[in-house]
Amino acid sequence: MEKNLQIFGTRAIIEAIEAGKEIDKVYLQRGLTNNLTSELNTLIKRNGIQTSFVPIEKLNKLTQKNHQGAVATISPITFHDFEELVIKTIESGQNPLFLLLDQLSDVRNFGAIIRTAACTGVHGIIIPKKGGAPINADTVKTSAGAAFQVPIAKVDHLKDAIYYLQGSGVQVVAATEKTNTTIYTVDITKPTAIVMGSEDRGVSGGILKISDHLASLPMQGNIASLNVSVACGALLYEVVRQRS
User: Fold this and answer.
1) Rounded to 5 degrees, what are φ and ψ at 240?
2) What total number of domains does the chain contain?
3) Do 193 and 162 contact (CB within 8 A), yes or no?
4) Which of 92, 107, 144, 168 has the most CB atoms in a 10 Å sphere around its CB?
């Protein structure tokens, strides 16, 4: 973890949150309770910041400084407001293309996906506030700087984001091997949002149920699935092909 992307010390983290810094995640010492920690916990919950309760050994690995049982990572990017991003894209007259990532956990996969998104004209990436891969130095490096080019928005719940997109005239296509319909038979020339799932479980069942289309990539041989960033690239370039 790069030192310029972390804050250590309970009071410093409280001040950073109150100052509106983009806090990506807070690591708190397991079992530690005092007034300052309680104040920090209240702020974390109010702002929906991802938190991990860890042993002190983990915090000592993150920093050699006096961390007082709390270390926070700062996002290297500024996140966009989801609804504003959708409205701005639609009003621009462009044919909207969004990408939703459902609990993606690997930062390098995330970075590779952001890079492909930049190359294929994705107007915005939507991720959940909790449970997904962080945007850290590794993500930015793997994205080859694209993390600073493609708007990224965090939402409380991806389901609500999907309903909002559908209400805005954007069809939602979930990538899954649990369908016989391939992406090549889905009309993605219209406003579209593609949902990619986590590396181990894929798109969650609740999201599959509310998506407008389920789409797969044809597979040959004995391997059951593609790496998620590779699959995402194949899907996004099918969008490019259909819209060309």
Assistant:
1) -60, -45
2) 2
3) yes
4) 107
Pairing of β 124-128 and β 97-101 = parallel
The answer to whether residues 42 and 95 belong to one domain is no
Q: Is 167 exposed, middle or buried (0-12, 13-18, 19+ CB in 10 A)?
A: exposed
Q: What is the DSSP string of 135-201?
A: --HHHHHHTTTGGGTS-EEEES-HHHHHHHHHHTT-EEEEE-SS-S-BGGGS--SSSEEEEE-BTTT
d(Cα 83, Cα 64) in Å, to the nearest integer?
40
User: Of 74, 91, 119, which marks where a domain is finished?
Assistant: 74
168 shares a domain with 145: yes
Q: In angstroms, how far apart are the furthest CA atoms of the chain?
A: 60
151 with 170, same domain? yes
Task: Give the pLDDT band of residue 2 (cuts 50, 70, 90).
Answer: very low
Do 52 and 97 sit in the same domain of this protein? no
209: confidence class by pLDDT, cuts 50, 70, 90: very high
Determine the Cα–Cα distance for residues 172 and 99; give it in Å rounded to an integer.
Answer: 9
pLDDT above 70 (res 181): yes
Per residue in 182-203, pLDDT tens?
A: 999 999 999 999 999 988 889 9
- Regarding whether 134 and 219 lie in a shared domain, the answer is yes
Q: Is the pLDDT of residue 217 over 50?
A: yes
How many whole angstroms separate alpha carbon 179 and alpha carbon 137? 36
Write the pLDDT tens digit of every residue in 23-39: 888 999 998 888 889 99
Q: Is 91 exposed, middle or buried (0-12, 13-18, 19+ CB in 10 A)?
A: exposed
For residue 47, what are the domain limits? Answer: 3-74
